[in-house]
Structure formats: structure tokens, C-alpha cells
Write a structure and sequence with these properties.
This protein has no helices and 48 strands. The protein starts with 7 loop residues before the first strand and ends in a 6-residue tail after the last strand. It folds into five domains: 183 residues, no CATH class; 79 residues, Carboxypeptidase-like, regulatory domain (Immunoglobulin-like), CATH 2.60.40.1120; 80 residues, Immunoglobulin-like; 84 residues, Carboxypeptidase-like, regulatory domain (Immunoglobulin-like, Sandwich); 145 residues, Jelly Rolls. Strands 3, 4, 5, 6, 7, 8, 9 and 10 form an eight-stranded antiparallel beta sheet that branches. Strands 38, 41, 42, 44, 45 and 47 form a six-stranded antiparallel beta sheet that branches. The chain has a five-stranded antiparallel beta sheet with strand order 39-40-48-43-46, with no helix packed on it. Helices cover 0% and strands 50% of the residues.
């Protein structure tokens, strides 16, 4: 059985009244009461009234009790049954409803039907002079006469109550008593005696605050309903507060609406008197933003890119390995979406989100560029080199040509590793591998180009008796510790200086090699160690003019100690044939020290004693 949804109203003496609907199209349990009815609050669910009295004509005493029951269907109308019991044991049901005009109507008594013309019991619109009589109930002639007046303050401190209902209770013409019914407090008087057990208003107040379910911010201007037919409606104030007064104890649908929010609806059970607090959290209307982020230059997806909405860090999402992103629960309406990557520039645009729709927004982000600048100079005279071509990574679109001052600047360079390439008429080809950090402006300073006239002759030998003979020492700091170096006593020396993370080398000047010929380069090497197993790793190299390794030999005491040099000199040969497609007419030689995470003697010295270059003829094997 559906719970009783509406308050009851009792007209004492002969009947109990309830606000229900007579129309078959509007059921009693679904009808929303007319809260302007002045006696609607007289009863509440479960209220039972028992009145005792004496017939002034016969002296007969007795009592009558009225108790509201659950709703039933009577002749197609959903009605409120009221059980009427007398002290003589009479027990019968009265069936009440409310017609489409809001008038309380008496539908049926026991087995006696008053359809289709039920008597009126309580009109929807009352006045100070309303009276009516009832001529038939349970086979007896009895009636009431009602009027309106102000109920004064009584000895219990209740009152005054304006527009109270006074009922003269008659039985076959004999006045049995006077009953007073005050709005909001129900029955307060019977023949001058206070019969009310209610110490506070039978109606309650429902109030609360409407807030945003996602950020707890108050929502002013939201429309709130208590039931819908007819509606009790209000609007939240600037503090998001709403309040309904004079609400009976029943079940109600509490609803709220506000543009850009999803409709709220919740069934609540009100209380008997007091204040019921029901705060409302409204969920914003929302949609989804999704898309893809790619590199504007390469077209490849950008993973780990950041997407942020309206400058709010809490909205950030990141692209996956495929460059895809998805932002859930985004409020409908206009937003501004930003996208950027750790190596890509910021981009942003306005976007409109629709209710429960997926809005796709893709980005092509330009890389965060850096730059490379410097000056090309003649390695012998330090004069600027004009008319030289500078490029990166063999890409024609990066090429620039130096002016009279030899200066160059490569702009919009993508971060990462690149080959820096230079050539000019009368100079050896120059290439260097370099790494550009994010948004870095890399200044190479003076880049020295070697004139072809500075090439040492083919088959040049070195004995270092007069010093390094143009050889220069180099290191790879900060990744490795620079070795100690020496160039006296007729040799070139290198030592880790105690470091287990050491790399460095001596490099020769450019030497002319005739393309197509084969050369034997003989290195004479010694060390200061008696035990060859303690000698650090040695590497001998031939390098082309573009800084590419052309040939090399590794001497490692850990793989074959007998091949490592001691204080007695050992010779090592590299056989090298410059390719006919070589971009450089000159090559350099290198003598490397490598001492990284080994058990070799970190204080050892190695020495390059001499280098001899000789063209040779290769004899094919039979």
C-alpha cells in the first residue's frame, strides 16, 4: 500500500475530511494538497481523535473516535477511508475524496454510496460565515454548523490563532458541544477544555542550501519544488538557501532546477513539527573533450603532452603513447583549452562543450626550438671565413651562407642531437656532432676551418723530439675526467691521474691522403708499467675530416695483456684506404686513453713515441 502522502483534515462531530481527488484522472495518493486551505494542518498521519460527550436532551453519554486509514479505490476514485467507532460498538468506514475544484467530498459511508452527487463537507474556499448541515449519517439525523473566528490565547499559552474553525456539534437538534480547530495546531478545544496533545505546530519547515556537487560552491537562483501539482516553489537566495513552511508530515518529491545543471529529484519524508534540513547537491551538465596531439613538423604523436582547461591545474590530463587524450565530466558551455609538451610550444583555443556529447579537438604543436650560432675562422690566421656553407644533418632547408664577418646563426633548431656541417672553397670539410637542449641558444664561439694548404704532406712522420709537432690534447668533460697529458721527453703522454672514469686523446693535424691509395700507419707505444696487465686501455684511430671514425685499433690489457705496451716499446699497425667518395681530402690520427671502471693502474702513464705513415701495395691472397 502506498504511504499516505497528504495531511488529513477532520471536521469534528460527524466526519473526517481529507484533501484527495474525486477525479479518476487524479489519484488521491498522487495529488498535491492545497496548502492555502486553512484547516489542512489539523491532522497528520496516524492521528486519532476520540471525543466524549453527553446528549443534553437525553443525558446519554458516550464517545466517538475517528481514525484515518490507508487509501483505497471506491467506485474508480482513490479515497481516504476513516474508521468511525462509537462507545456502543458501532464501527463503520467513511470514504472521503476531493473533487477537481478542491472541495472535500463525502463519497461513501459503509455500504451506502453518495455517488454521483456526494454531499459537501468542507469547501476549498472558506469564509467567516461558512455553514453547512448533514442530514444523514448511519441512519440518524444529525448535523453541524461551522463558523470562523479568532481563537484567543488559552491558559496553556497557545494562541491567538486567527481564522480558526468553530464547529457546533448537534445530534437530532440537541447541541452536544463546541469544538475549535486552529490552523497549524489542529484541535485545541472541546466544550472549553483543551484536548490538544500537540505542543508545537503539526506542520514542519523544510529548508536547506543548494550547492555545486563538484566544487561545493553555493548556487543562487536555483528553482526548488516540493511536489508539482500544484507546485510549492521557491528560488534560492544569494547564499543558495531555500525554505518551505507549513509542510505536512508525508512523502514528497523534492526537486531542483538550474540552467547548466542536471535536474535534481529526491523523495523525502517530512517530520511532524520542527525543521527538516535537506541540502541539495546539483550535478553540473557535462560532456567530454577528446583528441590527439602531434608534432607539427614530423606529424608524429606527442606522448606525455599536457592538456589543461581554463587555466585550472586540477583539470590536467596527459596524452598516451599514441598522442591521445580524454577529459571527462567537463561542464557544458565555453572553455579555453591549452596544450603543450616538454619539447613543444604552448597552443590554445576556445572550445564549446555540449551536454553528453564528445567534442574532438586535435593539436599540432610546434617544437620548442633552440639556436646555434658562432663564427667561422681560418685556423691559421683566425680571419673570418666568408661564403662558407653551414647546415645541419644533411638537410638542405637548414643551409645558410656566412657573410664577410664569418658569423652564422641557425634558428628554429629542434632539441636533440645534430650533425653540424661546414664547407668552404679552399678549406677542409668540417663536421661535429652536438646536442642542443630544450630552448637552448648554443654558442659555438670560433669554429676553426683548416685550409687545404695546411694539410701535412702524405707520408708525414712524427717523432716528437721537438714537441707535439701540431698534435693537440682533448677530453670529453663533463661526462669523463680529463686525463693528465705531457709532450716532453720525445713522446706524447696520457695518464688517468687516479681516475676510474677517464677518457682523453692526442689528435694530429690534418694529413693529406691520396684517395684510392692504401696506407700503413705505424704507432710506437710504451708505458711506465712492467706488468702489461696494469696498462689502461689504448685506442689508435684514423679520423676523416668530418670527424667520422675511419679505422681504429683497440689495445686492451684485459683481453690480451701481452699486446699491451710496457716500458719496452711496441709497434701497432693500422692499414687504411681512404674511400674514393670521401668528403675530405685530409685525415687526422688519434691516440686515446680509456680508463673506465677497470682494475687497471689508474696512475699509469702511456706514451706515443712515434708515428710513421707509408703508402703500401696490397698483395692479393692466392
Amino acid at each position: 500500500m502506498k504511504p499516505l502522502r497528504k495531511k488529513l483534515f477532520l471536521i469534528l462531530g460527524f466526519f473526517i475530511v481529507s484533501l484527495v481527488s474525486l477525479s479518476p484522472a487524479v489519484e488521491f495518493g498522487d495529488w498535491s494538497a492545497d496548502f492555502n486551505h486553512p484547516y489542512f494542518s489539523a491532522w497528520h498521519p496516524g492521528f486519532t481523535l476520540k471525543l466524549s460527550g453527553t446528549n443534553p436532551d437525553t443525558g446519554q453519554t458516550g464517545w466517538r473516535q475517528y481514525a484515518a486509514q490507508g487509501s483505497v479505490i471506491v467506485e474508480g476514485v482513490k479515497c481516504l477511508p476513516v474508521r468511525f467507532t462509537t462507545s456502543a460498538g458501532g464501527d463503520i468506514y467513511l470514504y472521503l475524496a476531493q473533487d477537481t475544484s478542491g472541495n472535500i467530498r463525502y463519497i461513501k459511508e459503509g455500504a451506502t454510496s453518495f455517488m454521483p452527487s456526494p454531499p459537501m463537507y468542507c469547501p476549498a474556499t472558506t469564509s467567516d460565515s461558512t455553514t453547512w448541515t448533514i442530514n444523514y449519517i448511519m441512519g440518524e439525523h444529525r448535523f453541524t454548523i461551522a463558523y470562523h473566528d479568532t481563537y484567543p490565547e488559552n491558559s496553556s499559552g497557545y494562541g491567538p490563532y486567527s481564522n480558526s474553525l468553530y464547529i457546533r456539534h448537534y445530534w437530532d437538534g440537541a447541541l452536544m458541544g463546541l469544538i475549535a480547530v486552529a490552523p497549524r495546531f489542529g484541535f485545541v478545544l472541546y466544550d472549553g477544555e483543551n484536548v490538544s496533545v500537540i505542543n508545537e505546530a503539526a506542520l514542519c519547515t523544510v529548508e536547506g542550501t543548494v550547492t555545486d556537487a563538484w566544487n561545493d560552491e553555493i548556487i543562487p537562483g536555483a528553482t526548488v519544488w516540493m511536489g508539482r501539482t500544484p507546485p510549492r516553489k521557491t528560488t534560492t537566495n544569494a547564499e543558495g538557501f531555500y525554505r518551505f513552511v507549513d509542510i505536512p508530515q508525508a512523502y514528497f518529491d523534492l526537486e531542483a532546477q538550474k540552467p547548466l545543471y542536471r535536474d535534481f529529484k529526491q523523495t523525502i519524508s517530512t517530520i511532524l513539527g520542527g525543521t527538516l534540513v535537506r541540502n541539495i547537491e546539483m550535478i553540473p551538465q557535462s560532456g567530454v573533450i577528446k583528441g590527439k596531439v602531434q608534432d607539427a613538423v614530423t606529424g608524429l604523436p606527442v606522448s606525455g603532452a599536457t592538456l589543461q582547461l581554463d587555466g585550472d591545474e586540477s583539470t590536467r590530463v596527459y596524452t598516451d603513447a599514441a598522442g591521445l587524450y580524454r577529459m571527462e565530466n567537463i561542464r557544458v558551455g565555453g572553455h579555453y583549452l591549452h596544450a603543450w609538451g616538454s619539447e613543444h610550444n604552448l597552443d590554445g583555443r576556445s572550445i564549446e562543450v555540449s551536454l553528453d556529447q564528445e567534442t574532438e579537438e586535435n593539436f599540432s604543436l610546434s617544437p620548442v626550438y633552440g639556436s646555434i650560432q658562432g663564427t667561422l675562422r681560418n685556423s691559421l690566421t683566425m680571419a673570418p671565413v666568408a661564403g662558407a656553407t653551414v647546415q645541419l644533418d644533411d638537410r638542405i632547408e637548414t643551409r645558410i651562407v656566412t657573410g664577410a664577418d664569418g658569423a652564422f646563426q641557425l634558428s628554429e633548431v629542434i632539441p636533440g642531437s645534430h650533425y653540424f656541417q661546414v664547407w668552404a672553397t679552399g678549406y677542409l670539410y668540417y663536421q661535429k656532432r652536438l646536442t642542443l637542449a630544450l630552448n637552448e641558444s648554443l654558442n659555438l664561439g670560433d669554429v676553426l676551418l683548416v685550409p687545404e694548404s695546411a694539410l701535412l704532406p702524405t707520408e708525414t712522420d712524427f717523432d716528437f723530439e721537438e714537441g707535439p709537432e701540431g698534435w693537440t690534447s682533448h677530453s670529453a668533460t663533463p661526462s669523463f675526467v680529463a686525463p693528465q697529458s705531457s709532450s716532453d721527453n720525445g713522446h706524447l703522454g696520457l695518464s688517468p691521474g687516479g681516475s676510474q672514469n677517464c677518457f682523453g686523446f692526442w689528435e694530429s693535424p690534418f694529413i693529406a691522403f691520396e684517395l684510392g691509395k692504401t696506407y700503413r700507419i705505424r704507432f710506437a707505444v710504451t708505458s711506465d708499467q712492467d706488468d702489461p696487465a696494469q696498462v689502461p686501455l689504448i685506442r689508435l684511430r684514423v679520423n676523416s675530416g668530418n670527424n667520422q671514425l675511419a679505422a681504429f685499433l683497440v689495445i686492451d690489457s684485459k683481453t690480451d695483456a701481452d699486446s699491451s705496451p710496457t716500458m719496452l716499446s711496441k709497434t701497432y699497425d693500422l692499414v687504411f684506404t681512404p674511400p674514393s667518395s670521401s668528403s675530405s681530402a685530409g685525415f687526422t690520427l688519434s691516440f686515446d686513453l680509456v680508463n673506465i671502471a677497470t682494475t687497471d693502474n689508474a696512475a699509469a702513464w702511456i706514451y706515443l713515441e712515434s708515428v710513421a705513415i707509408q703508402a703500401v701495395d696490397l698483395v692479393p691472397l692466392e
